[in-house]
Amino acid sequence: MPVATHLHNLQGEDMARKTIDLPYQIEYLSIFDEEGNLDEDLEPDISDDLLLDMHRCMLLSRRFDERMLNMQRQGRIGTFALVQGQEASQVGSVAVLQAEDWMVPSYRETAAIAWRGRQQPVETMVKLLLYNAGFYQGSASEREEHNFPTSVPVSSQILHAVGLAYGSKYREAGEVVMVYFGDGATSEGDFHEAMNFGSVFQTPTIFVCQNNQWAISIPREEQTESKTLAQKALGYGMPGIQVDGNDLLAVYAATQEAIARARKGDGPTMIECVTYRLSLHTTADDPTRYREDEEVERWAEREPLTRIQNYLKQKELLDDKAIEKLEDEIKAQIKDAVEEFENRSEELKDQALTMFEHIYAEIPAYLQEQRDELAIELEGASSE
Ligand SMILES: Cc1ncc(C[n+]2csc(CCOP(=O)(O)OP(=O)(O)O)c2C)c(N)n1
Ligand SMILES: [Mg+2]
Fold first, then answer.
1. Is 281 a catalytic residue?
2. Strand runs (DSSP E) across 218-349, as ranges?
3. pLDDT in tens, 261-278
4. Is residue 379, in this structure, part of any structural domain at all?
5. Would you say residue 146 lies in a domain?
6. How large is the angle between the packed helices 304-314 and 48-73, nearest 10 degrees?
7. Strand pairing partners for 28?
8. Total structural domains in the chain?
């Protein structure tokens, strides 16, 4: 706006210091706490089957995470990011999606991926293992699956998600897009661009921020001066809500509202799940160098798996015996997945040269050189 016009607009009744009321506040939602207190007025109406499925997925993710950590320590897979502590934030949100909706993960979304692949739990784990062992086949998905591959550059996937959601709106496909990112991701330009376009085009995007209190070794307090991360949504004219991210019911209820809004054409929502990264950032990390055990212990008391088990026990949907049976079933599935992964990775080892494909139409000389070198090495290895 030219300066003269701007000044003109400030004449008369506009010449005042006044408050502009905004239609938003930051709500914090918690429904079932770590002491077993339930807010019955807020309790979402979730069928018993769905509750049990969500619990199963959380348990499988926890146990699979533990198994992968052992495998990484044994040198059987590469570096990966652990999900421990964030299972409710992921399962409580992803479980509200329909199959045709889209799930756009970052690198810590083991539980969200496990949910989307819950019809074939073993195959889903095999693919996660392949991915974590460096095989691109672990990232491939069927066209109808509507899951994006894992995205490691922090925040990059948020832009992809908004583009996808804009596409869904443009095509009138009715598909909602759910994107995951961390507290640290909110400091990236990509996050802000995505939030702005996501809102200005009123896209059906659900921005799920898992505030696990740490971005590697940077604590939440050093990440931003904002009191909450959810309030960042307000700057872009969309609702932002903070939920207890270790409370499956709260995450589910908040996501239901957000998705209903998106489906009606009322645009995006940002959900900040307040949770905690109970374990390592990745297997390359040693958190004892930068955080206190006492803090971890405090959050361990609030962890989501025991919490949902307490709720299900209160509802008489689960008891210790049933949990034990489930543990055995999951253990067997993980065992099958590891075996299948070992077989498949053995076959795929010979295809290491494929890493040079699908990048350039014409391979540059320096890559050709590396490719030739690897080919000779592989030939040597196979004739040993
Ligand atoms: C663009 C970019 N910058 C830096 C990194 C290195 N890096 C990987 S994870 C991470 C911290 C991200 O923290 P947060 O967003 O809170 O997610 P969390 O890992 O806690 O789930 C950083 C800086 C990266 N992967 N991509
Ligand atoms: Mg974080």
1. yes
2. 218-219, 240-244, 269-274
3. 999 999 999 999 999 999
4. no
5. yes
6. 150
7. 242
8. 1
Q: Is the CB of 160 under 6 A from ligand 1?
A: no
CA-closest residue to ligand 1 atom 25: 153
Task: Give the whole-angstrom CA distance, residue 101 versus residue 165.
Answer: 10
CA of 183 to the centre of ligand 1 (A): 9
154, 155, 283, 285: which to mutate for ligand 1, most atoms within 8 A of CB?
Answer: 154
Which residue segment(s) compose the domain that 303 sits in? 21-341
Q: Please tell me the predicted confidence (pLDDT) of residue 9.
A: 53
The pLDDT tens digits of the residues spanning 330-360 come to 999 999 999 999 999 999 987 888 889 888 9
Ligand 1: distance of its center to the CA of 137 in Å? 24
DSSP letters of 208-220? EEEE-SEETTEEH
Judge if pTM exceeds 0.90: yes
Please check whether residue 165 lies inside any domain of the structure. yes
**Residue 74 placed within a domain:** yes
Check which CATH number belongs to the domain holding 147 and give it: 3.40.50.970
Encoded tokens for 238: 């969309």
The neighbourhood of ligand 2, an ion, using CB within 5 A, equals 182-183, 212, 215
Protein residue with its CA nearest to atom 8 in ligand 1: 154
